[in-house]
Design a protein that fits this description.
about 350 residues, alpha/beta, TIM Barrel, two-stranded antiparallel sheet, 16 helices, 4-oxalomesaconate hydratase, hydrolase activity
């Protein structure tokens, strides 16, 4: 298989009907079932037989728009997950969280079926605030065994800012049953916070705060001793941690009694490049090493805006990495695709199958 540029951090592009269905679930709280009125049995069979919210051809149209965005920057393959702000993991009753997760996963799977050589699925796990982690297992099994997804997106704060003190850190044994299944499935974990209802922080700040907490919780735990084959990617350059390594290298890390160095501990994780300034990208690579960095852009998403007319799009991150004289050709090969294909074995298999089928 020829070398590919792989973006590990993308989110579904879909019509408004998908999000209208989410509002239907929240508004009814599931009292009228999961299906919208007015859909025939034939129409309900669309989009993998769940809700029939969007006809497959319409999902194909939006996938084509999505791929056009990727073509503009030369991305060969993007891993696609749910839009994090929409995940509503703290909503009640729990059944609407599960129904929404299944619906979005079905929509992603439909788009992947149309363009398996360009898009691949990252599963939305329906974690539910104050419930055991095994509530996600049925959907994880379905995404792995039926839908062929290559990884999972995990929200480290299912309370969505309501009660973060009540949520176990990712180093806690609460999460171990999930890690065990992910290792068995060879599915990496993309740590991505979701919605935030706190009045103290907006959604984007919540992302960075939760990713920072996730890194610290993992490196201070026995997770990687217990699950040495677990692969964890932290988006947005790892929250704040790579830019604060000086704070944690000395007395703090010695006080943990973990042994080794803080820098070595951080390098047990992977970090994506979903950062929108050259300075931040350069610092990330210097802090964790090019072998621990994978391309992530969220394109199209928050970064899909012009920095200036002359500089172009903020999320044209591949061009920024290539334009940095500190990055060697070997560094670029690792960051732009080789590492992603190495840590996502199911992705490599799916792409090889797609190439054979063409």
């Amino acid at each position: 298989m020829p070398r590919k540029i792989v973006d590990v951090h993308g989110h579904i592009v879909a019509p408004s009907e998908l999000y209208s269905y989410r509002e239907f679930l929240i508004g009814t709280r599931g009292h009228y079932g999961r299906r919208l009125k007015g859909f025939s049995e034939e129409r309900e069979g669309m989009s993998h037989g769940r809700t029939g919210v969007i006809p497959p051809e319409e999902l194909k149209h939006f996938a084509e728009e999505h791929i056009a965005w990727l073509d503009r920057v030369g991305t060969d393959v993007q891993l696609v997950s749910a839009r994090p702000y929409s995940l509503m993991h703290s909503e009640k009753p729990a059944r609407i969280v599960h129904w929404w997760a299944q619906t979005v996963n079905d929509a992603i799977a439909t788009q992947v079926q149309f363009y398996p050589n360009r898009l691949q699925g990252i599963a939305n796990l329906p974690v539910v605030w104050n419930e055991p982690v095994d509530v996600v297992f049925d959907e994880l099994d379905r995404c792995a065994n039926e839908l062929g997804f290559v990884g999972v997106l995990l929200n480290p704060d299912p309370s969505e800012g309501r009660a973060p003190m009540d949520v176990p850190g990712l180093g806690d044994e609460y999460w171990y049953p999930l890690y065990e299944k992910l290792v068995a499935y060879e599915m990496p974990l993309l740590v991505h916070s979701a919605g935030c209802v706190s009045i103290r922080e907006n959604q984007s700040l919540h992302f960075i705060n939760e990713e920072s907490i996730a890194v610290m919780s993992l490196v201070q735990s026995d997770v990687f001793e217990t699950f040495p084959d677990l692969k964890v990617i932290v988006p947005h350059g790892g929250g704040s941690i790579p830019y604060q390594v000086g704070r944690f290298r000395g007395t703090y890390w010695e006080g943990t009694g973990r042994g080794g160095t803080f820098d070595e501990a951080v390098r047990r994780l992977y970090f994506d490049t979903c950062l929108y300034t050259e300075e931040a990208l350069d610092l990330l690579v210097k802090a964790v090493g090019s072998d621990r960095v994978v391309l992530g852009t969220e394109r199209p998403g928050d970064g899909s805006h012009k920095k200036t007319p002359a500089e172009g799009w903020a999320d044209d991150i591949t061009a920024v990495l290539r334009g940095n004289a500190n990055n060697t050709a070997a560094d670029l090969d690792l960051m732009l695709g080789d590492t992603a294909l190495d840590i996502f074995p199911r992705l490599r298999k799916n792409l090889e199958a797609a190439e054979t089928a063409r």
